[in-house]
Design brief:
The protein has two helices and four strands, in the order αββββα. It is an alpha+beta fold. Strands 1-2 form a two-stranded antiparallel sheet.
Amino acid sequence: MPLAQTTQLDILDGLSELGLRPRGEIRRMAGVCEVCGKGPQLGNRVQTRGKAKYLGGVGTKITGITRRQFKPNLQNVHVTTSNGTSKSIRVCAQCLRSGAVTKRIKARPFQLPKSGG
């Protein structure tokens, strides 16, 4: 394809095939964990009425089922990268609890003064 007929979309497609972004930008997808990739999932919201049988009622009835979206519990966390700089990323609570992400150390831990005696 001659250079004059190349469009900007063709150039961007070529860069994305190589795994590169224009001008070194990193795109973040909204609502997605940057560590594990967990994102929103679709499910059902089930509405019920009535009193449960074990409580002495005649049983609960389903009065409506509608679609809903389950969103991950994302937290903005400052982490220290491998080269020593700190960076803010969006991480789900599961990655934080499992230790997949190490938070940035804000201050050096307290140390007792060494006594010469």
